[in-house]
Design brief:
By secondary structure, this protein is of the alpha/beta class. The chain contains 15 helices and 18 strands. Bound molecules: cobalamin and iron/sulfur cluster.
């Protein structure tokens, strides 16, 4: 989205100042706020918005609503205007002192301008605050800064970067006064400059916020939000500290697991199996297993599995505590691509030895888990799943690109009667806030709309970004959902044609 393409409008003026009357939180992604028969209250929403609502409730501010307009496209927003306005009005957006918060990821950003414009036109006295994973302060020469774009276009009055503690304080402590809000990650435009500092902090909450997905009978929560590795393509912050102590996790989740009869727990933590975090999750899972919880869905860090002791502890934890679905970022196979994408372990770029060791570690983990599984007659016929994801960069060479299908083929040999191993290949995407975006700024299309890239047919990279661009374009034409072996053949065929 080009900064000049939006019409500048004056920010909302609340004068004389009125205390905050209501907070309406609008999601741009489709979150389906359905009622669940076991719990009459609508408990769905994105975890981010549910977290903000809970933090505000705990600060004694009760009028917070979450709204999913259910729009998949800009025409949906135009068509749904009456319905959206009606709903926002019922949530208090027309009252003086109303705050409307709009949450967006980079992929959904294309919905932000029409939604914000709608709120401006229909509720001119509402203060609009934007937040979500799209917003990180960058100030990169030649690229549009997401915070500056949203603020200088006049589409919103403030932007929260990162976690929302400052937004909660803005309402609960500063009565919605923009001139007083100075917490970490809270930015506004003073007519000349973007004013604000910091990257946001997790809001104060006494219980773990969660969302429940009724169709999968799954509870989703986040117990930690950082990763020590600091890969250049990932916006996860590096410092490490669990957000909640194990006793609080049990106090918060045991009740909902029982009441909602949840069978699965999905952790949104970026990297729960870092060596340093292992004891924490071991303790949490042991305590939670007194409940009828049968499955955990977790991200595995292959770099954390470099010694056999740790592999065994992880396989045992996964087996005893019934981890069923794992996702692992295999990301880079060669040192060349690790350097190109900035794949790191504890801040250090991965070299070929490390990458080869990781391949061995994944193999030993899968075999170990399969053996443990084999020993339990009750588990006969049930399979655990490991999905590996690989990243193809525009800067790959024929050799480094060819290493990907070769690696996938080798990994497929891990499939057995107890384990399903599968894989996907994704292009490197320069999301806001990543070092990849800064490093390759000259190769990125500054007007690129990530929303348009969802079908994979267009790329944020300029056509001459690197030798593998042709392959990236051909990979986009690959029909996802087809088998992994077909993907291997397809890649090999197109690598030959590209280079
Ligand atoms: C779960 C998840 C998903 C789920 C979403 C389920 C759901 N409905 O919530 C699924 C699998 C669908 C998904 C899909 C994708 N995801 Co995803 N996902 C995540 C993940 C792991 C957890 C999100 C979460 O729950 N966080 C916990 C909550 C508490 O934090 P939060 O959402 O950031 O919210 C806080 C702040 O952002 C802020 N905030 C949020 N909204 C608002 C609004 C206002 C008004 C304010 C003031 C503040 C505010 O306050 C919140 C509380 O502090 C994150 C990584 C991460 N750990 O955050 C990636 C992440 C969000 N996903 C990402 C991406 C790229 C994708 C995909 C494109 C595919 C992919 N390559 O992974 C798709 C596209 C989704 C889409 N259409 O937008 C990126 C987003 C980058 C970006 N710039 O947008 C992230 C950050 C991962 C990463 N490290 O790159 N994802
Ligand atoms: S290991 Fe995963 S979560 Fe950690 S920085 Fe790298 S990509 Fe992000």
């Amino acid at each position: 989205m080009n900064m000049n393409s939006t019409t500048a409008k004056a920010p909302a003026v609340i004068a004389p100042h009125t205390p905050v009357s209501s907070v309406s939180l609008v999601a741009t992604n489709h979150v389906q706020l359905k009622r669940h028969p076991l719990n009459k209250k609508p408990i769905q929403g994105t975890l981010g918005l549910v977290t903000i609502r809970q933090a505000l409730w705990e600060r004694g501010f009760p009028r917070v609503s979450i709204f999913d307009p259910g729009c998949r496209s800009t025409p949906d927003i135009v068509r749904g205007r009456k319905r959206i306005v009606k709903r926002l009005r019922s949530m208090g957006a027309a009252e003086s002192g109303a705050i409307v918060g709009i949450s967006t990821s980079t992929d959904e950003y294309f919905k932000f301008p029409p939604l914000a414009r709608l709120v401006r036109e229909e509720f001119p006295y509402a203060t609009i605050v934007a937040g979500g994973s799209h917003f990180l302060r960058e100030e990169i020469e030649g690229l549009v800064d997401p915070v500056e774009e949203a603020l200088t276009s006049g589409l919103c009055d403030a932007v929260q970067v990162g976690h929302a503690r400052a937004f909660v304080d803005f309402i609960a402590e500063h009565a919605g006064r923009l001139d007083r809000a100075d917490g970490s990650g809270f930015y506004r435009f003073d007519g000349k400059d973007v004013v604000g500092k910091g990257g946001g902090a997790y809001p104060h909450v006494s219980l773990v916020p969660y969302i429940f997905q009724p169709n999968a009978m799954k509870i989703m929560a986040m117990l930690g939000s950082t990763c020590r590795n600091g890969c250049d393509f990932c916006p996860a912050p590096r410092s490490r500290a669990p957000l909640f102590d194990p006793a609080t996790v049990v106090d918060s989740l045991a009740g909902p697991i029982d009441t909602l009869r949840a069978g699965a727990l999905q952790l949104h933590d970026p990297n729960p199996f870092e060596r340093e975090g292992f004891d924490y999750y071991d303790e949490v899972f042991s305590a939670l297993d007194e409940r009828a919880l049968t499955a955990k869905i977790l991200y595995l860090d292959p770099a954390a599995m470099l010694d056999d002791d740790h592999i065994l502890r992880m396989a045992k934890l996964s087996w005893e505590r019934l981890g069923w679905f794992f996702f692992a970022g295999r990301d880079a196979v060669t040192e060349h691509s690790a350097r190109a994408m900035g794949s790191r372990f504890k801040g250090r770029l991965k070299d070929q030895d490390q990458l080869d060791d990781e391949r061995g570690a994944i193999g030993r983990f899968v075999r170990g888990l399969s053996c443990l599984h084999e020993q339990d007659p009750e588990l006969k016929g049930a399979k655990r799943e490991l999905t590996l994801s690989y990243i193809l960069t525009p800067f790959d060479t024929k050799e480094s690109a060819m290493a990907i299908p070769d690696d996938i083929e080798a990994m497929m040999e891990l499939n057995d009667e107890n384990m399903v191993v599968t894989a996907g290949v994704f292009p490197l995407l320069p999301y806001p806030g990543t070092r990849v975006r800064r490093r390759y700024a000259a190769h990125i299309d500054p007007d690129f709309d990530f929303g348009a890239a969802r079908d994979g047919t267009v790329s944020p990279w300029k056509p001459d970004a690197g030798p593998a661009m042709g392959l990236i374009e051909r990979l986009a034409a690959w029909e996802r959902g087809t088998g992994v072996y077909q993907l291997v053949d397809y890649m090999r065929d197109h690598i030959d044609r590209t280079f």
